[in-house]
């Protein structure tokens, strides 16, 4: 098949038929354990969730300038517009930002530079004007049109399953490697039975009262978490980097982590009803997010069941008690492993004593692109945890 020159191509928001076509294509890659109908139905349900509503989710296609609505588009991806915070001076400022997902080129179009070009063009439709080069490169043809409602973002993030290089090379100009760079791809894993055994044998003193968080109360806890993040960011003087950013877990972002997997966990027996825990002065008191965890369950066959911690705020002295509670929950649901991303440095030592092992992951590498004049080396991604995965 003859490759189309990039000068004839551009990035467009997908029309309804293209969204469906894109989902049918990606089923081959990401539909494990589901039929095509189930996969499409899950996305239709997900479209109604807060994370996607109000045009927060957009599917983009790379297609010829003269047939933007073609169903034979060359590749596609998705963006989720989200709320974040950016700290440059004393106070964190609210920021618009993006999660990028589902980058896909059908096998017949692969290795022709299409995905790379689409991702380069994506900057030109989601980044602020002042962060882009002054001239759109002539060899790329006409500049992509801005789309009404696609408010420029302060940064964008994606999770690479194709190594650290591919997305870095998707720059704002040809042959420029100012694309997305990897940041903090660490995982800590606990074997549930082993850790439970270690912890159960230890002396229990001054135990905390725990409040189990169902769908409604975990949502409430994420809302509270936002204020804490803002507060912590204002006082994050121990962070050596002058600019810091974070996604916020509310407005459907953290919730997406378990709603996305509902098709699988709702078949569990017993069906899970709790999605987090927090320390509390009493079982009825409102959630206290100073000791707080939320999670999702990855129970998709044929792999063994995993509980993935999505948000975690805990003092090192309380980690042991918290993990003990989580292992008890995990055992009830036949979960073998607990996984957490980018555990805070202050928790690493304790986690080792609890049997946790920490390593660099090779997949889902968190990568960010900063849309500002600052050097990426001066940027810190705070709370780079699983809650903002997409
Ligand atoms: C990854 C994917 C999107 C690449 O699409 P593509 O249109 O073939 O990519 P490009 O032609 O633009 O690739 C440009 C360069 O990226 C690199 N690259 C391409 N696919 C790669 C992969 N799977 N792993 C690592 N590097 C890759 C190559 O260096 C390539 O240059 P080359 O062909 O000269 O060697 C496509 O293979 C795909 O859809 N895979 C399945 C879904 C997936 O894994 N998506 C990514 C999720 S993060």
TrEMBL record:
Pfam families: GNAT_LYC1-like (PF22998)
InterPro entries in alphabetical order: GNAT_LYC1-like (IPR055100), LAT (IPR053013)
Domain LYC1 C-terminal residues, every copy: 205-390
Matching PANTHER family: LYSINE ACETYLTRANSFERASE, N-ACETYLTRANSFERASE DOMAIN-CONTAINING PROTEIN
Protein's recorded name: LYC1 C-terminal domain-containing protein
Organism whose genome encodes this protein: Hebeloma cylindrosporum
